[in-house]
Amino acid sequence: MSKFPNNFFWGGATAANQFEGGYKEGGKGLSIPDTLTLGTKDTDREYHYPIDESKYTYPSHKASDFYHHYKEDIKLLAEAGLNMYRMSIQWSRIFPNGDEDKPNPEGIAFYRNVFEELKKYNIEPLVTISHYELPLGLAEKYDGWANRKLIDLYVHYANTLFTEYKGLVRYWLTFNEINSLSMPSGGFPVGGIKSIAGGHGMTTQIEETSVQMSTRFTALHNQFIASARTVNLAHAIDPENKVGCMIAGMTSYPLTPKPEDMLAWQEKIQQGLFFCPDVQSNGEYPYYMNRFFRENGIVISKEKGDDEVLKNGTVDFVTFSYYPTGCVQAKEEKKSNGAINAFGTPNPYLKKSQWGWNIDPVGLRFYLNEFYRRYKKPIMITENGLGAEDKLENGKIHDPYRIEYMRQHVEAMSEAIKDGVNLIGYMPWGIIDLTAASTGQMSKRYGIVYVDADDQGRGTFDRYRKDSFYWYQQVINSNGANLE
């Protein structure tokens, strides 16, 4: 018998800048990822602007071409049995530069058509308001989220969405993986802060000065305020609205039982994992950040009344992505470029994917319990999946490795629900193939639906059901009881 609740959300997730395409169509303006070029397994992506498509491949320009395939794609999601679809809206499709007074009518119409199509199939949209796609104009004109002006611009954008799509969308996420901005690498990609990232270059200064760190954490504070104000606005416009936070779930373990490793692990998960949801769910900065701010000379620019805004704008539910886990030791080895691996020291007990990400379904149960114990709010897993090279042969894709990955994680979810965790939804990442955020490659595939396109955006863009499509279909039809 299924251990999943009858109203469980079985879904899938994509992000507009990795899936939508149509980057010049329908009045859309440029976003930061529109300037991001293709990388490889071994080579980082770079930002190149002005755009030169004769010299570089920009994956977001075509992506999976959802812009022209949305009816077909939504029909496939319905066939698989999904009752929720996590997607994002591109700010630059609604407000091309990010700071206009009136929205772009073509952008408004496009997403309304998408939501109406989802409604036709009784699929509930879960909409990320900002998913790593800040309008380029806001980075150029304001230095991104380092400027408090972006709070009002974001709230104006969110107000437009809540008003235009009232009755069509009830579940919202304010920012994707907001804790990414707590890391040095998030300065420009996540925050649009040119003064930290050195313009449009991919190079990020890992050894930041206290002034640079203060700028970044002020930008994060501005996002906290924008999120809190947006929660209250959503409730005021439609009491049916539910607003959640979304965290990059970089779970880790101490490498050894040494007390020094335990303390290093505790510090890592507090600062990197729990800091942001502590603020967004509990409505205040956690005590343990005070020492970190003090010892690093970090001064956050706040205004009078900010603490009250945070306290009164807590989220209704919490969500996170879940991919690899890592281990933490007191003195971590650094990579050749000087950056500490975001996932920590490799875990010798876990197998790895083709892209070197370890696979840890047991860790998902651990993380779900930790999250629920801490916040006591409904939880959704809004990203989880396996990036792998799939082969299209005679119109079929056999991906037993993905089925096994998903089966193990669904089993872990079932165990967490037995533990008492209030888990309400599961959104596997890249439910239809899309370009990978880390590399821009289409060949790093996550979906249960194959998109016939290569890393350079060449192909028919036809869709094909993988074996995992039929497996997930039976899981949903049995409400998690049939995992064979």
TrEMBL record:
Gene Ontology CC terms, in alphabetical order: cytosol
GO biological process: one example: carbohydrate catabolic process
MF (Gene Ontology): beta-glucosidase activity
Keyword terms of this UniProt record: Glycosidase, Hydrolase
InterPro entries recorded: GH, GH_1_N_CS, Glyco_hydro_1
Family as reported in the entry's similarity comment: Belongs to the glycosyl hydrolase 1 family.
PANTHER family reported in the protein's UniProt record: 6-PHOSPHO-BETA-GLUCOSIDASE, GLYCOSYL HYDROLASE
Protein's organism: Companilactobacillus paralimentarius DSM 13238 = JCM 10415
Keyword Transit peptide in record: no
This protein's name: 6-phospho-beta-glucosidase
Keyword Hydrolase assigned: yes
